[in-house]
Amino acid sequence: MEHQPVITLNDVNGNSTDVLVSHNVKSRIRARSRALSNPNDYQELNVLNDPGNHPDEHYKAMSPIRFKVRSWLRKYVDNQSETLYYWQSRWRCKFLDLYFSYTSLMGSHTFYVLFLPLPVYFGYFEFTRDMVYILGYSIYLSGFLKDYCCLPRPRSPPLHRITLSAYTAKEYGAPSSHTANATGVSLLFLIALMQSTRYSGFSKAFLFAMVMFYYLTLVLGRIYCGMHGVLDLVSGTAVGVFCCIVRVATSWLLSEWDYGKELWFPVLSVVWGLTILFKHIQPIDECPCFEDSVAFMGVVSGLEVSDWVIRHFFDDRSLIYAFTNEYTYGQLASRLGFGVLLVVLWKYILSKPLVYSVFLKTICRMPDDRQEKQHLKIELTANSGEECIRYVGVAHIDIIGRFIIYAGIPISVMLVSPLILKWYP
Hints:
Number of strands: 5
Strand order of the largest sheet: 3-4-5
Number of helices: 14
Radius of gyration: 23 Å
Structural class: mainly alpha
Helix content: 55-70%
């Protein structure tokens, strides 16, 4: 009889379970089932099912410089899993499983879709715009570097992946986009806090502590959940710092420039966004992080086009600039309620049929290449067994469609919503 390996899984209470592993079963073994109070906890028994783990020969399709960079960085990834597992095992408990898995949602693009527009309705448009730039380019740059280096996440096993969605584990490791976002946004908050004259010393100290608590929660949570290692966090921090510095510097240098007078500005914004997406580096393995880059570049372009429309056509700075921080509770409730409803209505109900069926396929006559990509993925998946497939790419219609859909979010917040709410008594 053929010998079958046994894997021992340990839960947070120290109970162990021996799992008989067959070559015909799925490589992913869950230690606990998924529930509202019970996030996914699993180990990927076949390391080749996660991107970045194949032998070096698999990555020889890279350019020589790119391959050397990957090989040099790989040594900082390979030897950290045992140390990270020791740290994870030492601190694991059910409360922290729940806490870090749910707080990780603060780094998801769904969270940003719903919550990033909210400061606008409190009168903080300029600050929100800075956050959009920092988050957008942190996502793009971290995704670009992930796909450039093709470095794996820390090994599981020994680490446990603790997550609400196993989809997030299918990306490369370094740099951590959660860490890049948390770093950039936290720095922006701290800079604004230091420049503010509205708060007392005690209030500033309290707000500083809150920002650091948010930052450490997101960053340390990536290690606790078995998603990232030290190199991932360090490189993610560098990306966040870089994007924040560039945004603060450009905001100061261009503060006197009224781009609302430049007719070419919205065209350049859209062309630039689509160009850096279509020229994005191609990974070796299939990796979904590019989709977040498309979404955020769409948001950045939608914000720039909306702001240009306001500056060009509304000389009295009405619309979004009329959202001051002086409001009644009734006005605030109407802004938040209607604004969030409009974003949800556009993003989750109206956008796909309007963008794909009406605009791209009917008006623009754009060929739909989604089925071609899907068939190729199915074929490669069938032939790969339990291994991560080679990079197939995203359909061109999906890149443009997703770009437009996410550009519609700031348009609904900055143009559509204020046009209606400006007549609210």
